[in-house]
């Protein structure tokens, strides 16, 4: 089939590469000629400047100029195309609604080209990026406005997680196709012929609106599950005496109905999807007059999680951040990416600055450039000048009074020896990812250690909790 992928970001580029592996003739189109030149070069370093995904550059090298073509002008390719995949970024507005400006511009451009076709073969326009329920219908209206003939619209949402885009595209859990006619389902079955009757891949055919809603439901449920562990699991282990987080997790998730994914407690889930999608679903349901209490609570729990360890450091460890130097390890929203969108580190840094820290010493194995772009902007808060950037963990720790571990990079696992070498007690370790299982050796040497899900209750607090629950006699009653 002849396929045009519109938009070559994180969604579009891996999708185009994997479609071309399946033997389709794929044109990856983007309005940004710099991106197109980078992909066309075939050089990994150039490609990864825009989309950094394991296996992507190799996949592009395999099919480029045979089945996969890059272009910033698709007018000439529209004539005989079978399918368009809309992979345009749809950023959030402040009120949670979705900014469709780029999407609409692309849709009108394509409609203009399609209206000029001499060939009137069936063409299907498929929404791949996450868009509000009803957007496929909007696309249909745009095509009608331009008087495009013989077309169908469909929704085929993307479920990929960052860092796994190529493997995930080659072997997805499910392919969801929302369309209106058997003719369009058939066209998409040809696009995805390798998945249609696959034993392990669910191939779901439904309406465009249901497909759009599946994407929001999926991401919102995942965030709800993470927030259950962060907002309930971690609190149980932190606040009730002698409850061990790791054992709690193993014991609960041993039930085959309960997933281990999502049970890794953290300082909040970030990334470009979860926060945006839950806010968008809240907005869409509110517009429809529905209550969204659960979703709002999940969103709030996740946002609170990004700074609550700093509050715990003040209240539980009696740490005063004013004029202190704090090292921050990990800036990306998760390991193996340089993406800082909605990252917990962004909120932690803002919270630390608002508490009067003298300086912040930052380190991340991949996200240093992204961080500098974010915090160097002269129009942003001048307090960001207090952030310095370092090449190693050791260097970031030097001269600091506390460290905040924000991302689950493997190199942060078991940092106790590095900490002991770099800094002396009194020193506070705040661990947002439970990266230091042997923390007791640090505590024995006089360091303070505070972790998400870490039951570091002082003995007197532990007794207070037990008495509050009627489990030990009140101290005065003992007398
Ligand atoms: C997510 C969805 O997984 C994917 O299906 C959707 O298409 C896009 O959004 P992604 O944003 O790449 O993918 O990140 P994901 O790996 O899901 O992690 C999101 C956040 O949750 C990260 O900050 C991660 O560290 C955190 N997380 C994940 C936890 O805190 N605990 C966990 O157990 C799992």
Nutshell version of this structure?
With 479 residues, the chain is an alpha/beta fold.
Topology:
Layout: E1 2-6, H1 12-21, E2 25-29, H2 33-41, H3 44-48, H4 56-63, E3 68-71, E4 83-86, H5 101-115, E5 123-127, H6 135-145, E6 151-155, H7 165-170, E7 174-178, H8 182-191, H9 193-196, E8 202-206, H10 208-239, H11 245-253, H12 274-287, H13 293-305, H14 308-315, E9 325-329, H15 344-354, E10 359-363, H16 368-376, E11 387-389, H17 393-397, E12 402-405, H18 416-422, E13 428-431, H19 439-444, E14 448-451, H20 459-468, H21 475-478
Parallel strand pairs: 1-2, 1-4, 2-3, 4-5, 5-6, 7-8, 9-10, 9-12, 10-11, 12-13, 13-14
Bound molecules: uridine-5'-diphosphate-xylopyranose.
Average pLDDT across residues? 94
The percentage of residues in β strands lies in 5-15%
CATH topology annotation of the largest domain: Rossmann fold
Identify the CATH homologous superfamily of the largest domain.
NAD(P)-binding Rossmann-like Domain
What is the count of β-strands? 14
| Helix percent band | 40-55%
Distance between the termini: 85 Å
* CATH structural architecture of the largest domain: 3-Layer(aba) Sandwich
Please give the order of strands in the largest beta sheet.
3-2-1-4-5-6
Unique ligands: uridine-5'-diphosphate-xylopyranose
From the spread of the alpha carbons, the general shape counts as elongated
Task: Return the domain count.
Answer: 3
């Amino acid at each position: 089939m002849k396929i045009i992928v519109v938009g070559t970001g994180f969604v579009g580029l891996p999708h185009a590469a994997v479609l071309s592996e399946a033997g389709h003739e794929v044109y990856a189109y983007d309005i940004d000629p710099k991106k197109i030149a980078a992909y066309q070069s075939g050089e990994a370093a150039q490609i990864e400047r825009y989309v950094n995904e394991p296996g992507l550059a190799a996949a592009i090298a395999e099919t480029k100029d045979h089945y996969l073509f890059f272009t910033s002008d698709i007018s000439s390719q529209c004539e005989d195309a079978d399918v368009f995949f809309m992979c345009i970024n749809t950023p959030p507005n402040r009120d949670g609604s979705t900014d469709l400006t780029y999407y609409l511009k692309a849709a009108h451009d394509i409609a203009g080209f399609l209206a000029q076709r001499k060939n009137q073969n069936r063409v299907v326009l498929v929404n791949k990026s996450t868009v509000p329920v009803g957007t496929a219908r909007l696309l249909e209206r745009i095509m009608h406005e331009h008087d495009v003939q013989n077309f169908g619209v469909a929704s085929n949402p993307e479920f990929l997680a960052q860092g796994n885009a190529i493997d995930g595209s080659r072997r997805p859990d499910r392919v969801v196709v929302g369309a209106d006619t058997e003719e369009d389902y058939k066209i998409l079955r040809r696009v995805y012929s390798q998945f249609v009757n696959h034993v392990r891949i669910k191939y779901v055919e439904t309406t465009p609106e249901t497909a759009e809603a599946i994407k929001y439901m999926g991401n919102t449920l995942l965030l709800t599950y993470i927030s259950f562990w962060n907002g309930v699991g971690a609190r149980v282990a932190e606040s009730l005496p002698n409850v061990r987080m790791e054992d709690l997790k193993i014991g609960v998730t041993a039930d085959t109905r309960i997933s281990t994914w999502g049970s890794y407690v953290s300082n909040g889930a970030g990334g470009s999807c979860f926060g945006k999608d839950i806010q968008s679903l809240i907005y869409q349901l509110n517009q429809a007059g529905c209550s969204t209490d659960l979703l709002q609570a999940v969103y709030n729990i996740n946002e609170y999680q990004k700074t609550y360890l700093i509050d715990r450091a003040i209240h539980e460890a009696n740490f005063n951040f004013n004029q202190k130097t704090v090292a921050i390890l990990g800036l990306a929203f998760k390991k193996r990416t340089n993406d800082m969108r909605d990252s917990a580190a962004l909120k932690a840094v803002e919270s630390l600055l608002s508490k009067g820290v003298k300086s912040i010493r930052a380190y991340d194995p991949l996200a240093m450039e992204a961080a500098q772009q974010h915090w160097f902007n002269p129009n942003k808060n001048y307090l960001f000048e207090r952030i310095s950037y370092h090449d190693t963990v050791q260097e970031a720790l030097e001269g600091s009074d506390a460290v905040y571990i924000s991302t689950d990079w493997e190199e942060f696992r078991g940092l106790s020896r590095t900490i002991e070498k770099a800094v002396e007690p009194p020193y506070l370790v705040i661990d947002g990812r439970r990266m230091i299982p042997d923390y007791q050796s640090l505590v024995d040497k006089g360091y303070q250690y505070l972790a998400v899900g870490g039951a570091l209750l002082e003995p007197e607090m532990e007794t207070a909790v037990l008495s509050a629950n009627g489990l030990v006699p009140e101290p005065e009653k003992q007398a």
